[in-house]
Design goal:
Layout lengths: L17 H11 L6 E2 L20 H4 L4 H4 L3 E7 H16 L8 E6 L4 H9 L3 E6 L1 E2 L4 E2 L1 H9 L6 E5 L12 H13 L3 E6 L9 H4 L1 H8 L4 E6 L11 E7 L3 H18 L6 H11 L1 H32 L7 H4 L4 E3 L4 H8 L3 E2 L5 E3 L8 H14 L2
Parallel strand pairs: 1-12, 3-4, 3-7, 7-8, 8-9
Antiparallel strand pairs: 2-10, 5-6, 9-10, 11-13
């Protein structure tokens, strides 16, 4: 072996990705009581992944004026994260030039990868807008509107189209209209991150309401879609970047540039998962079966929310737990603090330090132990 020092001697060891480390700790735990509430993937009541029996218009709707006017199009991406990366790269090259450094806003809190992806694309001005009211366990709608109104003109706002990660809390239709109107006044460019379409309500059309409202109001925007969750294709990495532009010529130019970005970044995405999605959505019988599968998954999540809420109340656990059933989608922001989460870790229950849990990790066989442990955490740890 050469004694010459490596050119990369000064490279520091990166901190482990929290969610990956949490999963590794869970797998290494020999306890038969262990519960994994961390990873964002669907699980059956037996705690197992579910391979669905059935595995452009989905997010916008087949009658969307943007589609009918040929000013909306998509580029296949490597799942939702890949779509977000393409969006960030495209915006840095062709939108960021209007300012020295365009401000990029994410919700507080948000999925941690959003800021990292935009940083890697070159953006340097990263900010947050208010979203979660910790005292009320509710949406800070007033604060969110104030932050939009005070944002620099032409800022980029990353919005969660549905099933907000990590809070599980979505604006109402009326609130979405208010958000869109505020964005319009400030000339905000919206990027809608739609990783969980279908998991909020069980109906992908219902979950696309916010995106379609922005299109209806005349916004140019980008939509980042993942089919990993709603098709159960976690390892196939299938996603889509949807571009909605002012007119057809603009769409053609912009999509051509995104395709060049793809060419230099990874050349071509895998097609196996894409063919499954395309075949399913283009076949009426298969599409209906997929919609039924979505309803099955969403229904189980809702049932676990109500069961957890009921059992916590029945046990007399201090606090108001109504937010568990008013939140939607796969995740719940429980309101547990970091010390209480650490207490639960000692009980072999794995969740993020923010208190976010994946409702799919709860089953009828582990919920009693979970409720007992949460009760003990809340009553004994402040």
């Amino acid at each position: 072996m050469s004694s010459t020092p490596s050119l990369f001697t000064d490279v520091e060891l990166a901190a482990p990705v929290v969610i990956f480390q949490l999963t590794a700790d869970y797998k290494a735990d020999p306890s038969d009581k262990k519960i994994n509430l961390g990873v964002g993937a669907y699980r059956t009541d037996e705690g197992q992944p579910w391979v669905l029996p059935v595995v452009r218009s989905l997010v916008l709707g087949k009658d969307s004026p943007a589609i009918l006017q040929n000013r909306a199009g998509g580029v296949q991406s490597i799942s939702g994260t890949g779509a977000l990366r393409l969006a960030a790269e495209f915006l840095f090259r062709f939108y960021n030039k209007r300012e020295k450094s365009t401000a990029v806003y994410v919700s507080s809190p948000t999925w941690g990868n959003q800021t990292a992806v935009f940083k890697n694309a070159g953006f340097t001005d990263h900010r947050t807008y208010r979203y979660w009211d910790a005292d009320q366990c509710a949406l800070d709608y007033k604060g969110m509107l104030e932050d939009i109104e005070n944002a620099p003109e032409f800022s980029i706002f990353i919005l969660h189209g549905c099933a907000h990660n990590p809070t599980g809390l979505d604006p109402s239709h009326e609130e979405w209209i208010g958000i869109a109107e505020a964005c319009k006044r400030r000339n905000i460019f919206p990027v809608l991150d739609c990783a969980y379409q279908g998991f909020a309500s069980g109906d992908p059309d219902v979950d696309a309401w916010s995106t379609r409202k922005f299109v209806e109001l005349g916004f140019e925007l980008l939509v980042c879609q993942s089919f990993a969750k709603n098709f159960g294709l976690y390892n196939e990495r299938i996603g889509n970047l949807c571009l909605v532009m002012r007119d057809s010529p603009t769409l053609s130019r912009c999509r051509s540039q995104v395709e060049l970005i793809v060419r230099a970044m990874y050349s071509n995405p895998p097609n196996h998962g894409a063919r499954i999605v395309a075949t399913t959505l283009s076949n009426p019988a298969l599409k209906q079966e997929w919609l039924d599968n979505l309803h099955t998954m969403a229904s189980r999540i809702k049932a676990m929310r109500h069961l957890l809420h009921s059992k916590l109340r029945s046990k007399g656990t201090p606090g108001n737990w109504d937010h568990i059933i008013t939140q939607i989608g796969m995740f719940s922001y429980t309101g547990l603090n970091a010390s209480q989460v650490e207490f639960l870790r000692k009980r072999h229950i794995y969740l993020l330090s923010s208190g976010r849990i994946n409702m799919c990790g709860i089953t009828t066989s582990n919920i009693d132990y979970l409720v007992e442990s949460i009760h003990d955490a809340v009553t004994s740890v402040k």
